[in-house]
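question for whoever is on the cluster today: can someone run the full assembly for these? two chains, 650 residues total. i dont have access anymore since they changed the login thing
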Amino acid sequence: PDLNVVDQDIPLSKNLNFRKIHNYLIILKKSLLFILKLCFSLFFPRERRFQSRTKMALPFCDIPEDLQLRILSFLSPAEISSFACTSKRYASLCREDGKIWHVMCDRKWGKKTQIQKWGSGRITYKLLYKTLNGLDNLIGFWRLCGRANPPDSSPPLVFFEWGSSFVLGSRVLAISDDTYQVRKTPFLEMGISSEGRSENFLDLDGNGRSGDEIDDDWRSNLVPVDVNFMGNGHIMVEENRFSREEHKSPVAKGSSSDESEDATSPPSFVVSEMYTQLANKTTSPRSDRRRQRKKEKERQARIKWEPEHFIKVSDFSPTVTKPLQGLWKGFSEGRNMELYMVKYDEVGGIICKKVEDLSLSRHTSPVFWTRNHAFARCPFSAEEELILDGRIHITPLPVEVCEEVVSGILYMNSSYDLAGRVWLYENGTFGFGFLRDQFIVDLKRVAFEDGCLADVLEA
Amino acid sequence: FHFLSRSQSNSLTTTRVLYKEIHNSTAHYFFRRISSLKLTKMSKKIVLKTSDGESFEIDDSIALQSETIAHLIGDDSASTSNGFPLANVTSNVLSTVIEYCKKHASVASEEELKKWDAEFVKVDDSTIFDLILAANYLNISGLLDLTCQTVADKIAACKDADEIRATFDIENDFTPEEEEELRRENQWSFQ
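^ ran it for u. tokens below:
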């Protein structure tokens, strides 16, 4: 009966009913949609996550080529080789020397050297990458091992750094006895010719080049050498008497008088030169040839530079755990500034030797050594204070003595078998002294942490 | 202001004389100094408009990390009021980029920044590529290098070409013989 009443009430109640149903339906629909959206958000992200594991949402192929190359520039050659095998498109991309090898060279060495200048810009970037990779090992400090040449033509310490289109090894020399500054003169220059051969020159006079211009006169004073990498941290530098100077016609050694004067060169040199002269009959003006002949004679008259071996100084800077390690400079007993090298050995001892001595023989005695590298820290005993008090710091005269705060004391021995002390200062440097005298030798670092030379005298 | 208010009660000529005094007086000098200081202290806000119509307002010290925006500011200062339209950047990508720029504009140690960067790039792959494109468009070198390095690390983590193809959805259009030959050639070429 109730329903009948409702049914009879057609116009308003019907609408109302429909209205209610409509409202309920809307609410139902909204809640259903809401639940569906929840399900969507639960399910689909999971799917997408699963998708991204196997497929990039924006594939590598879709980004512009220069960005693709930028990404590839971070990879090593081995990784690029596997990438190049993925598809024809990338194989051709990785084949283009000017693109892929260029960005790889730029990424690794773009900031250190001018990569487009190497080999006068005429070598492939692929060869450049290989060359620079090999030369990268040279950067840093190398010390002479053994000595085969007179002291002024074989420096005990060589510092290799990047130049604009070459790697330059410079002698690190003390200047005099009144300053901690060092002098840096060019010693060995390593570059690459435009044909791709490695070109290394010794600059025995240490004059270096003026700017980037290659001067003919300066060039003739250079000694061409080969640098052989004999394994980790060991190179051998050997004079190369048989290399031809480029941009010039081969040596004119036609006359027998030239051959007889040159007693130091072995017969094979004469034969090979004759062959090269016969094979490459280039037309050069007579005066030019005469000048070259004279220079060749001068060059051969010079005494041969014996092969030298250099060993890399692997740790040239102190660390937190090894505060004494590295290359140091200081004045001992008021003479010229000396360069010292302090090494920590495997059994926990420390040895300090002069860099000069390292090249002379294995059996020179160290400056000081100790078996135990643990420092005694503050507060120090009264006897230690007594030992430290009244000591005279050996410094060059213009430099004022500033008393550094001692943060640690180490007991050490010297070759005279008398004890001594190493005083570690708060600023990171240290000084040492023996009980037999009243001096302290204060040492400063030769190089900063980043590998740059400290206190270089500007030329 | 004190001088000026006083001068208002007097005649015009006196005002002029007083005004001249103000010019020469140190009080005016200080007033000018303070007012110029106020202008410089107020950092300029820059409005960026994304491709989907949203606007972002950021400090100019943060916005200048993008060389594109720096050039736009330099060239046309009149558009600062309307905001710079960035046609290729959507709003969620731009908010991520702004997050990066804010962190790198703040004072933080290098180690802290490196750690933050490592966490920052732990996003899904589509975001990384969007970031690469945005950083390239906006010319933000730090972000571009960071994101490219991340993708390069993903390539380096793959053992061989097959895995790279799977990760990056690259189609293999070689025959097995071609592939073998190419693999040998590349191994020799890239040793």
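summary bc i know u wont read the tokens: The interface with chain A takes residues 124-126, 129-130, 132-133, 136, 144, 148-149, 151-153, 155-156, 158, 160-161, 164-174, 179, 182-183, 186-187, 189-191 of chain B (CB under 8 Å). The radius of gyration of chain B is 28 Å.
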